[in-house]
């Protein structure tokens, strides 16, 4: 009887232990093979924590003596303490990723100890370091945090600029890939035409909705009308430049995609206007929405930032000339086929490690090809450091203390003009990519 009752319990315990071992092994293998995904997850947790601390943490921060000591009993409002929470978590992530960017500088091969020890390994240690960096800034005086907030105002635009460059690169590569595929299958040309027409139709549709939502009748909304009209003019101008006969790589597909993004930035700028602004009819409707609806919108914004940081940090081809896109072994194989021998000194090709092998009574040096990293680790961490700054500005309205309601992110006049400036810079960058080969024909812009 005892054996009958003991056996199922033993089997259940064994199965649970095996399941835990398997899960642990799978998790460790996933972390070793995809450090980018793991860091992206930790970064997501940080920005969610910053958002929650901004909306629900002021009561706790008011009890920290090293923060309230400077006010001598006359405490500021909750909005100030909410901003302090965001700045401190952002600062911790900036220090963490910035330090890793410096430490991982010039890592080119997977045999580098920094790859195995810091980038892909010791995740329990790195998890503790991440938690420490999110907590320690709360022990710093407000003056240090205030200095960081001003630094973030100047660092965040670089993250926006990286986003724009990535967008331009993606649209051009998309166009080139489908044009090349269309040489064998004409359906790709039809798809390009369909997406192009759809993008321009989207621009017109967005413009009509913007006039309806942000220029209501009975109010003086000349600013909004000017911004919407200017956005349409920019779309027309960049399309005309694309079709100019002297433009070498002009194509309507990238122009349509950039035009659609331009109109999206116009919408994003106008919906960032204060909710009580008379010309922001959409904002009044959003203010009346449920907390769940607003929360979903905020989470989508944060996810888009994380995805942009992940893509920008992984896109080494766009921002680097180091050649991280092709395995080093394959390049050496072709070089040896062309030259018939290794090009390095002492018969060892560059980028290889030498290994001594003993045979009989002597020994010889055997070159062993090293595997090159697939992306620039330092660039990856640097992009996340800039994204940490951008999150601080996103959640605080670029440093304005407007005291907006909970669950709202990126609302205020500063956010409006930052997005308008981003729109203009995006159009200018695209036009420059078309005009530069014409203005400087002797330079290689490939």
Q: Mind sketching the topology for me?
A:
Elements lengths: L1 H32 L1 H22 L1 H4 L3 H4 L9 H26 L9 H7 L3 H13 L6 H41 L4 H28 L7 H21 L9 H20 L9 H7 L3 H24 L1 H4 L8 H12 L12 E8 L2 E8 L7 H19 L17 H27 L7
Antiparallel strand pairs: 1-2
Keywords:
disordered N terminus, single chain, two-stranded antiparallel ribbon, flat, 4% strand, mainly alpha, 2 strands, 70% helix, 446 residues
Average pLDDT across residues?
A: 76
The beta-strand count equals 2
Q: Which segments are poorly predicted (pLDDT under 50) over 5 or more consecutive residues?
A: 1-33, 320-352
Helix amount: 55-70%
By secondary-structure content and strand pairing, the structural class works out as mainly alpha
Main-sheet strand order equals 1-2
Proportion of beta-strand residues: under 5%
Please give the alpha-carbon distance between the first and last residues: 80 Å
Element string (H = helix, E = strand) = HHHHHHHHHHHHHHHEEHH
Q: How many structurally independent domains? A: 1
Largest sheet composition: 2 strands, antiparallel
Shape call: flat
| Number of alpha- plus pi-helical segments | 17
Radius of gyration: 27 Å
Task: Please explain how this structure is put together.
This protein has one domain. α5 crosses α8 (about 140-180). The chain has a two-stranded antiparallel ribbon. The protein is flat, with a radius of gyration of 27 Å. The chain is mainly α and about 450 residues long. The chain contains 17 helices and 2 strands. A hairpin with a 2-residue loop joins β1 (about 350-360) and β2. The model is unreliable at about 1-35 and about 320-350 (pLDDT under 50).
